[in-house]
């Protein structure tokens, strides 16, 4: 009977140890799964932060792009206005030149020497005004060249901003959708 007792005790001990082994194994697996879940949650949080950062960067890029678009439009408007003013002054100058030529021709055809002298004096005064207008035209041309250079600079900046925007932009409609 002792032998029997001893064999049943051993069997019970082995059964208990097997059950304990499985319980310990289950506890370790559960602990490992908790670690995995925690790591996954940390990665999700890091991804959320990265998405927020990219969203902020995209907002900043879009803001800069809008400012550059506005500046470009303003520069184009100013340049168009300057060109219009220059053309207007050029037309006025040509008209004055035509008037001076007419006066000169009439002066040459005039018979009275005194009238010729008076007309020539008027023409010389008008020529001084003509020189002043030419100087103004030169200044306006220089301003147009400066505005054109600035416009080219803004265009290059816009192209580089569009290229950088295409690298950062996750969607075509300039918004970032975060699904958490």
Notes on the structure:
The two termini are 68 Å apart. Helix 1 runs antiparallel to helix 2. The protein is mainly α and 180 residues long. The chain has 2 helices and no strands. It folds into 2 domains: 1-47; 70-165. The protein is rod-shaped and about 155 Å long.
What's the number of helices?
A: 2
Helix content bin: over 70%
Structural class from helices and strands?
A: mainly alpha
- By DSSP, the count of extended strands is 0
Instruction: List the uncertain runs.
Output: 170-180
Query: Sheet bearing the most strands, described?
Result: none
Name the assembly state.
single chain
Give me a quick take on this structure.
By secondary structure, the chain is mainly alpha-helical. The chain has helices at 2-109, 113-168.
SSE layout:
Layout: H1 2-109, H2 113-168
Q: Keywords for this structure?
A:
180 residues; mainly alpha; 2 domains; 2 helices; rod-shaped
